[in-house]
Input
Amino acid sequence: MEKTDVAKDPAVKKKGEDLEYAYDAVRVANKFLESQLQKQQAEWKDELEDLRNQLSQKICSGSSPAKKRFSFTFISLSAPTTETLCAARPKPAAVAGLLECRKRDETKLLKNLITDLRSEGALALPPGLPASVIFLCVRQADSSGDQARARSLCSAALVAMKAALKKQTSDLDMTALWLKNSLDSDELVSMTTDLSDLTRSLSDLCIQAYQQLLSITETQLQKLIVPALLESETIAGLSGSAAKLVVSRKRAGSDPRPLGADAPTMALVLRQLGALHTALSRQALPQSLAEQAFRQMTYLICASALNNLLLRKDMCCCSRGMQIRYNLSVLEEWLRSRGLAAGGAVATLEPLIQAAQLLQVGKKTDADAQAIVLTCTALSSKQIMKILTLYTPHSDLDEKVSLNFIRTVQELVKGRSDSQPPQLLMDVRRAFPVTVPYSPTPALSADDLVIPDSLKISFLRRS
Output
């Protein structure tokens, strides 16, 4: 049978040719882009190698220009880590001033330096000594080319510090000690080999230690805030309501103090805050960190006291407002005398300060109403109206707030731009993010460390 060729449709033939041309154009463009990418990649590798060499020199000299931050909200931004710069060299240069810990002595080192460290001897140590010793041992292993042992020792130290922190959940001084050593370890380890995973874990440990430090102080303050700040008769003879306040708390079952026990005063509140300040200062922790810690504490004081005030009619009177304002002035002066006001610790008290002033100002005329709305900017509209509604005269010289005055204030607060949350009560559990600026650690040498014999780590060899 004879084979017959069938002629193609000219339109179909032209369409096929167009597709071939389009495919060739795309293939040429892809090759061009590929060559451009390869060229850029080669240039990038050359630049990266130059940066590595420069950073390697800075790392080995014991300094780093990077900035490091960690956040209370569990967002940790660590200093940029490098690849194993010193390890990349075929013959690592010897570094003086390090400490050598033999493999068989590592368990003993961690036991004596971290696990079995007790507060009696620990508080006499120079701030950050355990972290410095561990770092010099890790650095010695790293500089000798044994990166596996450096990583192993650093990981074991991290686990030991976590366990030590967990055992001392109620010890303020020891928690501050491990916060200091966690911060120092995080900064020092970032200057050695590629331990980015460990620096993240160390940052998390810093956050855990900081939270534990605040939690210990909060637990002690919670039972003191209301009786000391709101109920204590600091200005003697100002009102005869102090005894009535205690009786009302006893009847309501809200007073945990045993019968006949002394009522907490501002002196006890300042003593607890002083213990926190001493713990932070003893470990030479950054001043900015102390300022942020006390901002968190004063927020707790303000929120707890104001919430209690907003729920108790017996608190809302002029004489009680004067007592509260005086107690707050004592706290403000204490914070300023220790240089803690710059971080917002005093400003955080403003809602309670304005509530105390609201109890004292005149509440009769339209001018009084306008003054209240203009000055009580740290209080929400609901909080202002609640205090005015609860206001109760406790003497013949005082008068009850009229319903017309309350309505006048209510109309005025509707027209203001309220920057405060609409809720009546403050969130007592609110946590502020905390930022710790990285300060370059000076060159560390074993010759500069004062290691007491009580630590029993004389088996370490200086190199």
In short: The two ends are 97 Å apart (CA to CA).
